[in-house]
Design goal:
By secondary structure, this protein is of the alpha/beta class. It has helices spanning 12-22, 24-32, 35-41, 45-64, 74-86, 89-93, 97-104, 108-118, 125-168, 190-207, 224-239, 251-260, 273-283; strands at 173-176, 179-185, 211-218, 243-247, 268-270.
Length: 299
C-alpha cells in the first residue's frame, strides 16, 4: 500500500495520478484483454499493451493538471494522436458510435478496483468516494475524447468518399484526338460543379485537347450559382487554350441563364452531344461519311 502523510490524505486527483503511474503496467495489461480496447486502439495484444501505457500516461498527465473534466486538456492530445496512428476502430470493426461509447465503459472497473485496493484501509469513506468519483469523471472524459475523434474520423471518411463519388460521377471521355467530353447526368450543385471544372481542366492539359464538350442533356435543372459555375468553366477552358462547347441545354436551364443575364454570345452551344461532336470534327477538317453512300454523304 502507498504511504500517506500521517493524519492526511492526498487530494483525489493526486491519488488517481499516483495510481496511474504506479499501476501503469497492470492497467495496460488488463485493458489489452478488453476486445473493444484492442479494436479501437490497435490490432494485436502487444500493441494494445503499448497503446494502453500511452493512454495511462496521458490520463496521469490530465490528473496531474487537475483537468479531469476537460476533453481539451493537453494530455488528451496524446490519446488523439494514438487514435490517429492506429486508426479509430469504429470504421474498421463496424461498431456504431453508441456501441463504442458503451463498450469503453468497461475500461473503468479494472482501474477502479486497483484504486480502491491501493487506498489505506483506514481511509475515510468520503475520501474513497471522492477518489472513485474523480476516476469516473476522468474515464468519462476519455470516452468523450474517443467519441469525438471517432466522429471526426467518420466525417472525414464520408467527405473523402463523397469526393470520390463526385469524381466517378464526372467522367471525362476522350472522343477523338484533341477532343474530350464531359457527359453530366443528375443534379448539379456547387460542389459537383467545382469538381466538373477541375476535372475538365486537368483533362484538357493531360489530353492536350483543343475542344471540350460539356454535355448537360442529363441535367434536369440548375440554380443560378451552378449556371454561373458552368460559364466560369467555359471561360477557364478557353484560358487553357481549348474551346468549350455546351450541348443539351434544356429549356428550363436556358431560361435560367437568360434571366441571370449571362453573356452567351461567345459560347458555342449545340442541341445534342452528337451535334457538338459533328461541329468539332468539322472544325478539325475531319470528313464524316454516312454509311451506304459510298462517300457521297461526306461533309
Amino acid at each position: 500500500m502507498p504511504e500517506h502523510a500521517e493524519g492526511t490524505a492526498a487530494e483525489p486527483t493526486r491519488e488517481v495520478r499516483d495510481l496511474l503511474r504506479r499501476r501503469r503496467e497492470q492497467i495496460a495489461q488488463r485493458w489489452a484483454d478488453e476486445p473493444l480496447f484492442r479494436a479501437v486502439f490497435t490490432v494485436s495484444r502487444d500493441e494494445a499493451v503499448e497503446a494502453g501505457k500511452t493512454v495511462v500516461d496521458a490520463l496521469a498527465q490530465v490528473a496531474d493538471a487537475a483537468r479531469v473534466e476537460d476533453p481539451d486538456a493537453a494530455g488528451f492530445s496524446t490519446v488523439r494522436e494514438q487514435l490517429a496512428r492506429m486508426g479509430v476502430a469504429r470504421s474498421r470493426s463496424g461498431l456504431s458510435t453508441a456501441q463504442v461509447s458503451s463498450e469503453l465503459a468497461a475500461l473503468r472497473p479494472p482501474v477502479e478496483n486497483l484504486l480502491v485496493a491501493d487506498l489505506p484501509e483506514d481511509a475515510p469513506a468520503e475520501h474513497v468516494r471522492d477518489c472513485v468519483t474523480t476516476l469516473s469523471v476522468l474515464m468519462g472524459t476519455l470516452r468523450v475524447v474517443v467519441m469525438q475523434t471517432a466522429l471526426s474520423e467518420g466525417q472525414a471518411l464520408i467527405d473523402r468518399q463523397r469526393l470520390q463519388l463526385l469524381e466517378v460521377a464526372t467522367p471525362v471521355i476522350k472522343l477523338w484526338d484533341g477532343i474530350v467530353a464531359v457527359p453530366l447526368i443528375g443534379t448539379l450543385d456547387s460542389a459537383r460543379s467545382q469538381v466538373v471544372m477541375e476535372t475538365l481542366l486537368e483533362s484538357i492539359v493531360e489530353q492536350q485537347a483543343r475542344y471540350a464538350i460539356l454535355d448537360i442533356t442529363g441535367v434536369p435543372t440548375v440554380d443560378s450559382l451552378v449556371a454561373q459555375h458552368l460559364m466560369k468553366t467555359v471561360a477557364a477552358a478557353r484560358l487553357m487554350g481549348a474551346e468549350c462547347i455546351v450541348s443539351g441545354i434544356r429549356p428550363a436551364i436556358a431560361q435560367t441563364m437568360v434571366h441571370l443575364g449571362l453573356d452567351l454570345g461567345t459560347v458555342v452551344t449545340r442541341a445534342s452531344l452528337a451535334d457538338a461532336l459533328g461541329y468539332v470534327l468539322h472544325q478539325l477538317g475531319v470528313g464524316i461519311v454516312t454509311p451506304g453512300t459510298n462517300g457521297a454523304g461526306a461533309r
